[in-house]
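Re: export button greyed out
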Amino acid sequence: MDYTNNPDVKLPLALIINMPELKENPFRNRIVESFSEDGLGNISFNDFVDMFSVLSETAPRELKAIYAFKIYDFNTDNFICKEDLEKTLNKLTREELTPEEVNLVCEKAIEEADMDGDNKLCFTDFENMISRAPDFLSTFHIRI
Amino acid sequence: MLTLFYHRKHLQWGHERQNWTMEQWKKVAWSDESHFLLDHVDDWVCVCHLPAEEMAAGCTMGRRQAGRGSVMLWAMFCWETLGPGIYVDVTLTHTTYLKIAADHVHPFMCTVCKNSSCLGVSGSLIPADAESFRCFRESQEFVEKYEGALGKGKGRKLYAYKVMMMKKWMKFQRDFENFRTACIPWEMKIKEIESHFGSSVASYFIFLRWMYGMNMILFGLTFGLVMVPEALMGRPYGSMPRKTVPRSEQAGAMDFAVLWDFGGYAQYSVLFYGYYNNQRAIGWLKFRMPLSYFLVGVGTVAYSYMVVIRTMARNANRDGGGDDTSFNFSWKMFTSWDYLIGNPETADNKFASITTSFKESIVEEQESHKDENIHLTRFLRVLANFLVLCCLAGSGYLIYFVVRRSQKFALEGLENYGWWERNEVNMVMSLLGMFCPMLFDVISSLENYHPRIALQWQLGRIFALFLGNLYTFIIALMDEINLKRREEEVVKYNMTVWQASLYNGTVDDNSTTSTIPVDPADVPRGPCWETMVGQEFVRLIVSDTMTTYITLLIGDFLRAVFVRFFNYCWCWDLEYGFPSYSEFDVSGNVLGLIFNQGMIWMGAFYAPCLPALNVLRLHVSMYLQCWAVMCCNVPQERVFKASGSNNFYMAMLLVILFLSTLPAIYTIVSIPPSFDCGPFSGKKRMYDVIQETLENDFPLWFGKVFSYASNPGLVLPFILVMILAIYYLQSTSKTYKAANMDLKKKLQTQNEENKKKNKRAALKAEAELEEARNAVMDGERNYIHPNGQLLSRIPPPCGSADRPPAPRGSEMAGYLPGNPRQPGPRRQRSTNSHRY
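Workaround output, generated via the alternate export path:
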């Protein structure tokens, strides 16, 4: 890594997700991808700093909501659709729930949060839902 | 200089106006500058060239614009008249051109052309029109203002200096912020705990750290403004009766047991109230000791209020709305994973608990809300509350009884009794604090509440238990104070007798004989009730701390050791069965912390050493509990926080603060201070020190103003105004809440409307699609290809049997069936709508 002649170093995804802070996180791939410029997970130093400052204690709620939306949007279509929810749930429970249960939970979640009736969550829906959540700020936090 | 850029711009300008009429060209003003050398030849050469060769290398030369011995002239003309000729004495750059343009061209244009549609063309710079001369004028002003910043002109040095100072200041601020963040203690410890146990256990340690910070400030106040001045500038030990151990106690004053009990030398030191002298000003600084003591006492309470309320406000701001149950599943999905977890075992635990929580919610959602046996549940809950009340009453009576007994012991002399009798009160209180919560836990299993609600009930009951214990303790203390005051009367009487005996029978009071020197240790002493109160609190804190640590060691550490090593030779699996490893009890520990802080606030006025003691205690607690948690505890299986925010614990802290300052205020206001100990001795009431200071140290008008301000006639209206303000603020906040609910409801109904509309639209679209498909199949059934091929019959879809077939051959010409085609179905539909 020649820092003098090539100062824009980008670290690959595989290296970052082995950090002790991220190692156990089921969403580590998505976290790194959503902060990388190319969307594939190669992050530069600036992206790295951005990532940990959004996840820090003092980041404002709105900023965290924006990035949480990006992280949970697996297919990056700016909507959290049912497939995204299913993937989230499977990652959270390590696929211990039966498909019917997964289906039920995803449908309930969309029913609760979807405001404009298009069966997927746009950013406004997500933000409206997450801004009321009491645990959001304390769980969406990595200390470094 | 006509660079390529401006060349192109000129060309573009020309092309745009190549169709202009004569009238339009009459409105244009033409300008240029030229350079006349006065004393030498500039090597200007006249060339003749073809139009195409204008810019050819052989026909152009470099040009100097201005310099010594040369003159630059700038002039302009238009159709009507000649314009001004201006001598330019500086290098013609954009800056100076703007100046010239603003100063001369614009006025000229205004005089020549009455409307603003005139244009100016210059020889070597960008063409402009009259409107942009306004722009030039503004630019000129801008340039003059920021001359320094542009690097030219006189303001440059000052500006550069300002910029440098600004940069240095920002760097200093950033470094200071970094330093401040680096100073925060135990950050790595908390991070480790977070990664192993999640955020709820770590919240206890963050709370502990916050308390430590607050206690440091309190310690700074009491140490710096009360203890140190008296130690440095006050009379030394042994110079006064109040500062000396009495003769009778001197034998055992250095014993460890006595010191541990805060008697002996510990009692007669700056640690307690009784040591302080009531001299109005001490030392060369004329430090007002009694005033400082009083103000520090008031200041610690005021500071604590301010800090707690500020933290509550900040937390309330952060967490937005309250508890909503309308986003149950969404919140579970998006906020249940704790990003702080970094340990594989904890992660496994967390996954398991999330799965369980989802399964539970699904079950709750699926089964109907039938309240089976509501009467039984209600009866059980009432029974449980009754049992709890019995417990609380029982513990209150027990403490009262024990305190009475200890008073009896004290009257008969403590030396006759063993260790238990002497420390009975403290031990009983600590033991009650340990066992009653467990009892409450068992009782609450009768109630069958949701775990979060059960936790809140549990916390409420423990809170009531501690509060009851504390107040019983205070009542007992009051009794003792009254006892001591009666004793004081007796001692005062005895003092006169003793003094008389000193003079060996001299009855004459006006005798001017010199006082016989008496060793301070021999003077009879009054019972200093303030010191006694301080001592009681200190002993209580110490015993509480000891109990906590011993419980920790036995309950957690020894238990973990037992489970670990005896598991091999035991009948059942110890790790999963009965003892197993303990979980960290967040709420119990937080409550303990809060109540300890309450006791500090209560006792800090009478024992200035309490904040120091508390700082030490918190420091040790931090390390000990961090070690214990990492070593002996397992992560919790089900994580339920008492409330979403930390404000629940902050609210309890505020209540405790209020309740603990009440007894202190009562004693200050209503009980006269002891006559021979403490900084207020000799006064009628402790707050008289304020009056005294106002009379002696402040100018006369200040005292008058203060007396006017404290006039009841002024204070009462002020209180009235405050009450009205509170009422007004509360009613506005109610209206805001109602408006908020309204908006929420509107949003909800709008959401439902949208969903219904979308569903209807979706159904309609589906129905139409279905119809279209049917029609297509119908059409295909009756269709005959123009080249005579008969197509295979497609069985008609159900529901279309009632539709009469329509002759569609002409429209279907040239299309093979089965190909997806857009116009077909549409045409069908239009035909259909025609028909029906």
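Chain A has a mean pLDDT of 87. The button fix ships in the next patch.
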